[in-house]
Design brief:
Helix 2 (about 35-50) crosses helix 5 (about 135-160) and helix 3 (about 65-75) packs across helix 5. Strand 3 (about 100), helix 4 and strand 4 form a beta-alpha-beta unit. The chain is globular, with a radius of gyration of 15 Å. Helices cover about 35% and strands about 15% of the residues. It has helices spanning about 15-20, 35-50, 65-75, 105-110, 135-160; strands spanning about 25-30, 55-60, 100, 120.
Length: about 160
């Protein structure tokens, strides 16, 4: 199973392109409720990315920060407990260089969002939808977290944006 199915609508940019323009780079992670998968992805972008790059996450709705997402990230040494659940409209004035959608619902239902940025997509499993014993739920969160971690790392590596 290929975990990194990039769908590009614009050519891949490199960190040098932004450096040459003397601009700050902005990355947006977009999901349905900005509570779980997008929060984890933002945590990894912030962890792996070079200085001078801003990462935001938003949803087409806001569902609050999922405690399971916070816990799974803490198990991997990343604190997202201070993140907030934000609506896409809050970022209408920011020009994003890279937009990652982490679920099909957000990709298909996001209102028009003007940006020159490259758009990439991966439909990650939503661990918050899993029903089962607590240990099984934790394992699903960890599985989604690990997939997101690998995906974010690869996306940054391909664009020469790793710290």
């Amino acid at each position: 199973m290929n975990l990194l199915p990039f769908k590009r609508t614009l050519p891949v940019f490199l960190a040098q392109d932004v450096a040459n323009k003397n601009e700050t780079m902005n990355i947006l992670v977009l999901c349905t409720g900005n509570s779980c998968r997008s929060q984890m992805a933002q945590g990894y972008f912030n962890h792996f990315v070079k200085d001078g790059i801003n990462c935001y996450s938003a949803g087409i709705e806001t569902h609050g920060l999922n405690p399971g997402a916070v816990a799974t990230m803490q198990r991997d040494g990343i604190d997202i407990s201070t993140h907030t659940s934000n609506h896409i409209d809050e970022y209408s004035g920011i020009d994003f260089d890279l937009i990652l959608t982490v679920c099909d619902h957000a990709k298909e239902n996001c209102p028009f969002f003007p940006s020159k940025g490259e758009r990439i997509h991966n439909d990650f499993m939503d661990p918050s939808k899993f029903e089962g014993l607590e240990a099984e739920k934790m394992a699903k969160f960890d599985e989604a977290r690990d997939q997101i971690k690998r995906y974010v790392h690869k996306a940054l590596e391909e664009r020469s944006l790793l710290n």
